[in-house]
Amino acid sequence: MSKITNCFLMLELLNSGSVYSVSKLSTELGVTERMVRYYKEQLELSGFPIESFKGPGGGYFLNKNNSININYFNKYDLEILDRIKEVISDKADGDLKQQYGLLNEKFHSIYNINKVLSEYKTLNLTVHENDEKLKVLNDCIKNQKKLSISYLGADGEITKRDIIPISMFEFENIIYITAFCKLRGAIRHFSLSEIIDYNVK
Prior knowledge:
Blueprint: H1 3-14, H2 22-29, H3 33-45, E1 50-53, E2 59-62, H4 75-88, H5 94-119, E3 121-122, H6 132-143, E4 147-152, E5 158-171, E6 174-181, E7 186-191, E8 195-200
Helix pairs in contact: 1-3, 1-5, 2-3, 4-5
């Protein structure tokens, strides 16, 4: 997945209210711990205050009380900010230029993250009502049924997973299933297209 997609998925995990260690997020997202810390920095730049604490049970969590949500912010606002940056580049002192550059970067990050969030939507099953795989998954979600799947991983290997589907969503034209994976003992996201075979248990 792309960096921006992984940032979004990390935000979704933290939005559950749970505390996630760096190692756990690394496993959930399938990236290195260094990348998890990078995603944290990018999300914080975008106005999502991710806090952390050390010790047993410590990790990252999202402070929802301080989250920024700017739905009216658009690309034309960014163009104005970029034009101001050009104007002050020749006139402002070094410290002011540096501070404005950081502020401008934050606004660009906020816009990019909000753009991704606007593209994320809960799957409308009526559009796909003729897809048998989606029907089965929807039934499992509604009736809390377990599902055994054969899943094609990013490394090209097919693994057997026993999952409990929770919800489905669509992002960048890809359908994902959020489910509890018994193999990993945690919530994971599965791409619908990578589910090779399935069987209701």
